[in-house]
């Protein structure tokens, strides 16, 4: 079957009409959903890594400060000093052991309902 439009002969398409209107919208929404999911997951992983790094830095600083007290360089009690330094770094001491002039500490940093933890040990050079 053919028609004439403005003097031009047009043939009817032998294919049935397509009913896929809105398919591009669904695809676009799927792409946006995947992008948001991946971005959220990436932010969570990077944030957890950052919390772990923060815990490691806090553990190092805490152990060094406590070792200074244990060695007599500053006054006070080593584990109390460790607690003060840990809190100043946004962490909390979860373990503190003093063996002569060597101090071992463990600290934790909260992150999204979890805790990142790290341990460190410090003392004068040559101490074990």
What does this structure look like?
- The chain has helices spanning 23-70, 78-88, and strands spanning 2-5, 8-11, 92-99, 102-111, 114-122.
- The chain is built from two helices and five strands.
- The chain is rod-shaped and about 105 Å long.
- Helix 1 (23-70) runs antiparallel to helix 2.
- It is of the alpha+beta class.
- It starts with a strand and ends in a 6-residue tail after the last strand.
- The longest helix has 48 residues, at 23-70.
- The model has no long low-confidence stretch (mean pLDDT 87).
Strand line-up in the sheet with most strands: 3-4-5
Structural class of the secondary elements? alpha+beta
Strand elements, count: 5
Provide the residue-averaged pLDDT.
87
Low-confidence runs of at least 5 consecutive residues:
none
Give a short overview.
By secondary structure, this protein is an alpha+beta fold.
Short key terms for the protein model shown above:
128 residues, alpha+beta, 3-stranded antiparallel beta sheet, two-stranded antiparallel sheet, 46% helix, rod-shaped
Topology:
Blueprint: E1 2-5, E2 8-11, H1 23-70, H2 78-88, E3 92-99, E4 102-111, E5 114-122
Antiparallel strand pairs: 1-2, 3-4, 4-5
